[in-house]
Amino acid sequence: MSRWADDARERLERAAIELFLERGFTATTVPEITARAGLTTRTFYRHFSDKREVLFGGGEIAAWAADMIAEAPASWAPMRIIAEGLAEVAASRFEGRREELRALREVVRSDDGLRERELRKWADLTEASRVAFVTRGIEPVRAALLAQVGIVMLRVSVEDWLGRDDGRALTAILRDAFTALRDEFA
Description:
Blueprint lengths: L7 H16 L6 H8 L3 H7 L4 H5 L3 H12 L6 H17 L3 H12 L2 H24 L4 H23 L7 H16 L1
Helix pairs in contact: 1-2, 5-8, 6-9, 6-10, 8-9, 9-10
């Protein structure tokens, strides 16, 4: 077993997801995951705090969102930052993975603890976005509203996208959601 393989994290993720889909989340153990990945349990814990983190990752997504907001051009309006950021997220983290993400959604839905963890991760992402908007100089209440809107747009659009079989791109669904929101408030 190679403890220091460059692709250890990816191998562990792949093995865990395969096992979650085959046996269920609760029935899968960390030693089973590491055995399938050909790695040690110690290596697993170097990459993940627990097996739930295989599905949700650490804080890197919230940090990435905060950086994206902070690094957006100063001339961009907040809703443009949200729209551009969500389009980038859709293209880089979702497109081409619909079936995999549908399966992962079912794993999460099968366990109360995972659903709770998912809500916590959404809340962390919302808070990171709110803080990033405040740091850009946006008034706190407006920053909180913008952060909530961005996360709701993503969640609603992803659910719509995962429920479709028409091959429509998530970026197109997001664009339509922004248009609908704008029209609603016009």
